[in-house]
Each structure stands twice: as C-alpha cells, then as structure tokens.
Amino acid sequence: MRLGGVATIRGGHSGARVFLTVVGETAWRAAALSRAVEAAGPEEGLQLLHDCGLQGLLCYDDGRVISTPEWTAGAG
C-alpha cells in the first residue's frame, strides 16, 4: 500500500491523555480511523488499524508508547 495521509489527534483513555498518529493511503481515511481507534481503546484500536493495513502510534502523557507492528518511524 502506498502511504500518503497522516492524522494526529489528542484524546484520552482511562484517565490518561494520549496522542495518536495514524498513517494511511489518504488523510481522510487516517483521520476517520484515528477516531475509531480512540473509541475502541488502544489494544482493539491498534488491531483495527493493523487489520485495515494502516499504521498507528499512541503516545501517552506518562511516557508509554505503543504502536502497530508495522510502525517504522525512528527505526534503525
């Protein structure tokens, strides 16, 4: 898949503030799925992104970072 869209949102889950970045083939799809991840929660949401072939990164205000397996930002 060719990736060309990025969406970043700020939200909350279980009392923690979280920043979510989704990368996909279009910005509108990345934005729509970022809201779906926010609603589903981190584990189910990241699985949804993976199932849809998109990449995502969650950064919590306490320093935790989780991502889809395909996330490659900063690797190497």
Observed structural traits:
76 residues, alpha+beta, 4-stranded antiparallel beta sheet, 33% helix
Structure description:
It is a single chain. It is built from two helices and four strands, in the order ββααββ. Helix 1 runs antiparallel to helix 2. It has 76 residues and is an alpha+beta fold. The chain has a four-stranded antiparallel beta sheet, covered by helices on one side. The protein has one domain. The mean pLDDT is 83. Strand 1 and strand 2 form a beta hairpin. The chain is 33% helix and 36% strand.
Which regions are unreliable across 5 or more consecutive residues at pLDDT < 50? none
Structural classification? alpha+beta
Strand residue content: 35-45%
The largest sheet is: 4 strands, antiparallel
Q: Number of helical runs? A: 2
Estimated helix fraction: 25-40%
Strand element count: 4
Topology as a string of helices (H) and strands (E): EEHHEE
Radius of gyration: 11 Å
Total domains, how many?
A: 1
N- to C-terminal distance = 22 Å
Mean pLDDT across every amino acid position:
83
Walk me through the topology.
Elements: E1 5-13, E2 16-24, H1 27-40, H2 42-52, E3 55-60, E4 65-67
Helix pairs in contact: 1-2
Give a short summary of the structure.
The protein is α+β, with helices and mostly antiparallel strands and 76 residues long. Helix content is 33%, strand content 36%. The protein has one domain.
